Known about the structure:
The protein is α/β, with parallel strands linked by helices. It is 49% helix and 14% strand. It has an 8-stranded mixed beta sheet, with helices on both faces. It has a 4-stranded mixed beta sheet with strand order 3-2-1-7. A 3-stranded antiparallel beta sheet has the order 4-6-5. The relative contact order is 0.07.
Amino acid sequence: MPxxxxxxxxxxxxxxxxxxxxxxxxKAFALLIYLAEAKGPVAREALATLLxxxxxxxxxLARLRRLLHRIEAGLGQPVFDADRISIRWAQAVQxxxxxxxxxxxxxxxxxxxxCRTYRSDFLAGFALADSVxxxxxxxxxxxxxxxxxxxxxxxxxxxSNAAGQHHAAAAFAGRLVELDPLSEVYARHxxxxxxxxxxxxxxxxxxxxxxxxxxEEIGVELEAETKALMNAGATSADPQPTRYVCNAGIHxxxxxxxxxxxxxxxxxxxxxSVERVWELPACQTFLASLxxxxxxILFDPxxxxxxxxxxxxxxxxxxEDIDIVxxxxxxxxxVLFGASQSGAACIKFAADHPGKTAGLIxxxxxxxxCWAPDYPFALRPxxxxxxxxxxxxxxxxxAGIETFGPSLRGDRQARSWWAGLLRAASSxxxxxxxxxxxxxxxxRPFLPRVSAPTLVLHRxxxxxxxxxxxxxxxxxxxxxxxxDLDGEDHWFFAGKQEPVLDAVRxxxxxxxxxxxxxxxxx
Length: 522
């Protein structure tokens, strides 16, 4: 059977043996592309509803049958495997899809090939006027692929500059600026690369263009970080410094990256160090991807990491610390990303501060630290105590990595990083108080009070916190969206990252859309 190439990055196109085929029907392209992206059978009724949402069931199914016939007539060959229930691309077809080639290049780290493949946005300029459902699907798929492109370009900028290939880095950074001309983060990538390349005139030109765009289009001046870069020049590293803010005599370490919107604060579990987290490539990749979605804020809770070694924070103390750090970072409204044990603090913050909480993302979280008759998703107190003592006994080595990140348990770099992070985060004695506080936490009464849009993510086979704990949270927060993910890792950065990041991108895109609608109304 001949090779069929489906172009989805840009205006859709079908080619057979390199020859473009004219189908003439937008819904023919929509059906071919949707089936290709599904990578498997799709129910006939689902396709009929997607393409003709206003039509009666039998009418939609009849239109689908006619469309299938017209497509195969136009292509000159049968291309579907279909039965009475479902339809898919025929397995015998040698199908090539550019969006899939792009994603595979990203997965294997061939970012240059990925960027060459990404000619334009997914189905650029293509829509179905009578199907909001299809257009919504295209929007989220487009945003997902754009996010991967941004990540690939940022990796190329960083790697090219590190290798001394500053001219190439500037070219990659230029594409970032094209994707979002009002992003100072991307503009700084471009200005820094030009400076490192010795091309100060180009850096000044981009700086002036950015300044003009920011003033004319959104009426703001450039950030201090951008001005400082232009005034002082650049070095290959230019690291983001850790900053401190004091709360009742306790110094809290935090970092803030970028200038996008919304602000996303990532609060880890009971182990944290805002500088050491960047040393594991998988964690760095995940955090860097979040930076393409919004401004990233990290902080170490009191008693942990680079913050003062005070007594273990209470739940209310952590909430107060979150508020203090947000003010220091000039953040008025925040999307909280709470992982594991920190999910409880994020839940209570969202309940207590609805005006400051734009959205709530919970990953592998729990509402209660230990078992109860009406909460059977956690360890019983005696089991918790045994686990705590075993963890403390193994402290200094990669304690618990088999539970928290089983996909990384055989990775020597990950094991070394985790052991070092444990030592940097806490001492065995201080850890006991932190874990005891976690055991005694119960935020179930606050769940119904959360009014912010909420996304609950949990891996189905999480070894540390059962997936039922995530479902419990989602079931008790009004309107919460629950997504169960494949895998057994408890760490958000371990295992497959893209499903997690895709869910976050869709959630944040929804927040932005609701905000735009609200501003239009008022």
